[in-house]
Known about the structure:
The chain contains 9 helices and 15 strands. By secondary structure, the chain is α/β, with parallel strands linked by helices. A 9-stranded mixed β-sheet has the order 14-13-12-11-7-10-9-8-15. Helix 3 (about 70-80) runs parallel beside helix 4 (about 95-110). The longest helix is centred in the C-terminal third of the chain and has 15 residues, at about 260-275. The chain is globular and about 55 Å long. The termini are far apart. The structure holds NADP nicotinamide-adenine-dinucleotide phosphate. The site of NADP nicotinamide-adenine-dinucleotide phosphate has 22 residues, from helix 1.
Amino acid sequence: MSLGIGLVGLGAIARAQHLPALDRVTGVHLAALASRNATLPGLPCYPDVDALLAAQPDVGAISLCTPPQGRFEQAMAVLRAGRHLMLEKPPGATLSEVETLRAEAAHRGLTLFATWHSRAAAGVDAARNWLTGQSLRKVMIDWREDVRKWHPGQDWIWQAGGLGVFDPGINALSILTAVLHDPVRIIRADLQVPKGRQTPIAAQLEMRAADVAIHADFDWRKTGEELWRIRFETADGSATLDQGGARFAIDGQVQPIAESAEYARLYERFRDLVARGESDADFTPLRLVADAFMNGRLHQVAPFDEAADG
Ligand code: NAP
């Protein structure tokens, strides 16, 4: 039987990725929507998740596509109503709240799927396989994009819990922690926070996994073509994940891999986790971001005005 999904929050990612994926993946279907502002034709629509849960007891699962701040209350309402739960990345605004969700889901025997869409990019498995048996020396991450292009009008990214440039940067950390075999730790973090904002517009991280040095550069001030790249240097050569994990090259040779279908893979996995009665909730990337905020050096930089030219 197909799993009915209630979608909550019809913003940029819900429209661009969740709706098409729900259309495409067999065994799941869009059953209802909760949105403060929008409706979809032919679909039961509610102003918030509580109204959806109350009116639609047959909707077995909820997918939250809202900003991380405030998502905890929505998530707890879902679990307390006995529904399976899928979370957009980052899974929450704090580590303590996501651990609470994990415990609640386990206590109720429900599936909790904390998604990391970049881990589902087509090149990530190839990179992990290639790294197995390699003597890794160094990793360099360049994650640079134009915040005006990718996050127009999103005030929440600048507010506490919104992560700032770590909103995209955590995607790189989710790939990093999926392909390396040793745990990653933060050595040093420098965070550039625009005057009057709560979150960084750029960040540089020094990390280690065993003895391997990892440097990450996250920057939201890059105009023109974006760069979402992780480069691995080993004793015998190098490899590069590009385009957020969609492209993988070994010593400059692009490897044949499938087209990326990140969100289709996420919904397939959610469907399968629910069928098997399992959860998938790895908070490692969020923990690294929390460590960067806890241990990072703050540098105040020029105010960010979204309306001004980059
Ligand atoms: P967005 O465009 O701002 O949409 C978020 C939606 O959540 C809003 O449209 C709104 O939908 C709902 N919402 C509920 N409470 C809100 C509040 N207090 N403030 C703002 N919106 C609120 O954000 P998004 O880019 O879709 O991101 C949502 C989540 O997906 C984030 O965790 C983000 O990291 C993740 N994500 C985004 C992208 C991307 O490229 N944009 C990619 C991957 C993952 P209603 O008006 O329907 O209630």
